[in-house]
Specification:
295 residues, alpha/beta, 8-stranded mixed sheet, 8 strands, 17% strand, globular
């Protein structure tokens, strides 16, 4: 399984490492803001976040929903930005409900395959940083209610979106996984191993939090051409588990394989699928206690 994932990484390296140069960034509609957000960890005490605000009247911005976009590994925020921003702008221009897109950097140093997790040794604290520090930094005085916040991820980011959504069902009303997986795949020992850290491994296993799944709407995107062993069939398998819990979900199949081309092609159905609640701009408490693992 792990060797297959490495082969998939090699196959799409050209797409995953396509940086956005300054000139390219200027071509994007709307605006991009770069934030430096503190993290409670050893590896990267300051992490980077890019915030894309679509071209809408200034008076509307404070009430826009927010979608947090998680990149894969190896990868960076700029890769998924390049795959999504222009497509989103086109859909918004054509009448889709606009939202602010947030692109955090989930890379790690000691455990380079971070899985968007808090590592067992505290050297990476990506989940805590994302759910606490980043939400506060991005949304500020206008903390959105759950009904106006979603989380999306590609590949490793798809896993991250799923497990973080399940850990924090009070924060995210909708989870979007694109070529994601719903099993643990800890390539660089972020969890410490089942023998030494069984509770941590259990905490990172999506099926252990299945009882929370019905609190979330799910969009499961997977390309029929994605033959990566870790990915192939995961949307259908997780969909079956969601069905057993009567959770709201859709499965979206489209060409593109395991690539950002596939991600780009999913922006139109995603913007049509997303649904948002009313928002008055009244500040709310963003604290999110994590549930305990349960079967």
């Amino acid at each position: 399984m792990k060797s297959a994932r490495w082969l998939a990484v090699i196959a799409v390296t050209g797409l995953l490492f396509s940086p956005i140069r300054a000139a390219q960034a200027q071509e994007y509609p709307g605006s991009i803001t770069q934030l430096k957000v503190a993290s409670q960890e050893t590896d990267f005490p300051i992490r980077t976040v890019y915030v894309w605000t679509p071209p809408v009247p200034t008076s509307q911005i404070q009430n826009l929903p927010v979608v947090y976009m998680l990149h894969g590994w190896p990868g960076s925020p700029k890769g998924i930005m390049a795959a999504t921003i222009k497509e989103l702008a086109t859909e918004f221009k054509n009448g889709a409900k606009p939202f602010i897109a947030v692109y955090p950097d989930g890379n790690a140093l000691t455990h380079i395959d971070s899985e968007w997790a808090d590592s067992y040794d505290g050297k990476a604290m990506v989940e805590t940083w994302l759910t606490q520090n980043v939400i506060q930094a991005v949304e500020g005085k206008n903390i959105r209610p759950k009904s106006n916040r979603a989380i999306l991820g590609f590949s490793m980011g798809g896993y991250g979106a799923a497990i973080i959504g399940l850990h924090h069902p009070d924060l995210y009303s909708q989870v979007i996984t694109l070529a994601g997986y719903f099993v643990t795949d800890d390539l660089t020992n972020a969890y410490g191993g089942f023998k030494d850290q069984p509770a941590k491994v259990a905490y990172q296993t999506p099926s252990h939090f299945l009882n929370y799944a019905s609190q979330i709407r799910w969009f499961l995107g997977e390309s029929p051409q994605d033959l990566t062993v870790l990915i192939h069939g995961q949307a259908a398998a997780w969909g079956a588990k969601l069905k057993s819990k009567k959770a709201n979900y859709v499965i979206s199949k489209a060409p593109g394989g395991h690539s950002y081309q596939f991600v780009s092609g999913q922006m139109k159905p995603i913007t049509k699928w997303l649904t948002w609640g009313p928002f008055t701009g009244i500040p709310t408490d963003s604290a999110s206690p994590s549930p305990s693992a349960s079967n």
